[in-house]
Amino acid sequence: MVALIQSLIYHQLLDTFHSVLGLTGFVLLCSITMLIAASGYVINDYYDAPIDRINRPQRWIAGNTWTKRHVLIVYFSLLALGAIISVVLAIRLSMMAYLFIYPIAVIGLWLYSFTLKCKPIAGNLWVGLFCAGVVAIVALPDWLAGNQEVISQALWYYCAFAFLTTWYREVVKDLEDVEGDARASCQTFVVRYGLLSGKIMALILGVILVAALYAWDTDQSGSTVKLILTIMQGAVIASMAFVWWASDKVYFHHASLVIKGVMLAGTFILLII
């Protein structure tokens, strides 16, 4: 998904003929992002083992499918490969001064898995920011080089969309997983303040997401794109209804699936925008 989204952003929302990245630079950047994301999933599974044993017994990896030592070997291997490619890209773009972005992203994902995940708001917010970063990083080299004219305004709409949909889904996921999180003493917003407060938080984010989709809609001229954005707004509202009326985790799961569908529709828009 990272490779697909970044490829669509590069080809659809950047002027590739005048971008400082070039095709080779983009491939390197995309590879780095995938390695960072993969390492984040691996270390998250490592720290999440006690919770996943309760919430996802069929998909419990660290200490079950793999030994924890095996998980750490994979994690550090991914980081090492990503670091090497980052140096190559920085040299290629003459941007060695910005090489610090790689360790910041890595440390940020490690902090999320180690401690932020179980902090109210902070954990969900960080995941949303990372997903927005996956979008924004494609335009970052041109932005830093003062080459902003090659960046389409739609890229910033999509960046906001990625941030808000991810944050919204993370809160819904916490509602779905509240039992396991509570048993593992993971103090998410829902565990600390209760289901009702969690539902209200999710609905607030849902309303903001609908407003953002409406703003994106009004800025478009193509009828097909406007239709898809309108359907997405309706789907978000439907997911909010699932959240509000949910009496067990099944309804929260349905809401999560609807949000995934909205995310997929947003990616599809990149094909036709």
**How confident overall, as mean pLDDT?**
90
Largest sheet: none
What is the rounded Rg?
A: 19 Å
Q: What distance separates the N and C termini?
A: 18 Å
The secondary structure category is mainly alpha
Number of domains: 2
- Element-by-element helix/strand order: HHHHHHHHHHHH
Q: If you consult CATH, what is the topology of the largest domain?
A: Tetracycline Repressor, domain 2
Tally of contiguous helical segments? 12
Architecture of the largest domain in CATH?
Orthogonal Bundle
How would you characterize this protein structure?
With 273 residues, this protein is mostly helical. The chain has 2 domains: 1-151, Tetracycline Repressor, domain 2 (Orthogonal Bundle), CATH 1.10.357.140; 156-273, Four Helix Bundle (Hemerythrin (Met), subunit A) (Up-down Bundle), CATH 1.20.120. It contains 12 helices and no strands. Helix 1 (2-13) packs parallel to helix 6 (122-144), helix 5 (101-114) runs antiparallel to helix 6 (122-144) and helix 7 (153-176) runs antiparallel to helix 12 (249-272). It starts with a helix and ends with a helix.
